[in-house]
Write a structure and sequence with these properties.
This protein is mainly alpha-helical. The chain is built from 8 helices and 4 strands, in the order E-E-H-H-H-H-H-H-H-H-E-E. It has helices at residues 18-22, 30-33, 35-63, 80-97, 119-132, 142-154, 163-176, 183-295, and strands spanning 4-5, 12-13, 316-320, 323-327.
Amino acid sequence: MGKYENPRSGRAISPPTAHNVTALPSSGLLAGRNWRKFIKLTDECDELVEEDRRLMLQFVEVLRRDPGTPVMELAKAEMGDYANAMVKRCRERLEWFDRPEYYEDDSEDHEDAEKILKLEVIVERLTMMYACADSGPTDTEPEGFVRMLSMHVYGANDINLTYPALESGCRAIEKAQKPVRSIGYVLEVLQKHQEDWRKRRQAIYQIGHTLKRLREAILEAQCKLKREQAVMAVRDAKRELQHMRYKLERLRKKESEADLAHQEAIAAREATERAIPGVELALQTAQAALAKLKADGVDTSEGQESFPTVGKPQRQQMSLGHTRCTVR
């Protein structure tokens, strides 16, 4: 059988044979022998993913804060001793499970080459997976299927598979109780688990950076808030001053109107005071004339008086004893 060239590394390798599939010696994969620790690592990494997501949401919230609104306290941008210990523990356990010897060493050929999982590691784990999974009624030769599956996984550019993703993906297929009849199904499961482990690895190594960015954003937002409050205080003071000046102008106008009314009232009072002596003199003159008429024997008793009206003459009738006369 000819050589196979990995499209990612460009390295020519021999495809796995029936012998090294069925009787592959143990490569010392740790997760298979320490599955409980691997599950514990997965669970704690998922907690860190959620914590990193929470910090990132707070970071976005601080950046999108409306002007003048309060800023979260800097003390809340902390993970605490428990989370810090979890980060340290997850780093140590991930480095213990995801060992450098599981990957091809391309550092001499490519300075920034990505890590490529060794073919023998892939073959051993996929062989155990296929032996445990339900293959269903098929005429496919198990050795041939595993050989081709291993080559597809090894050469998949869009997966960039790591050992934790290989292990957890194979475990998921083993527990799914779903027939494994196609290479595409296995690649799809491994790709999903590789994405999950990409997020977990990012949370482990980037959560400190996320926390640092959040704290820097909070400090910057607090400085902005102080400037915003100062600007708002100046604006509110100007608005209040404008209102008070308008109110003062209205009060002055009312006071001027009140002064005018007061002056008019004073003038009316003074005119009334000046008119009272004349009215009193007229009263005295009238009383003297009345007293003179009374002294002359004129009947001055008050009775019904009629005053001529201006306009059309009116007919008046007077009754003198039994005689009626009409006076025009």
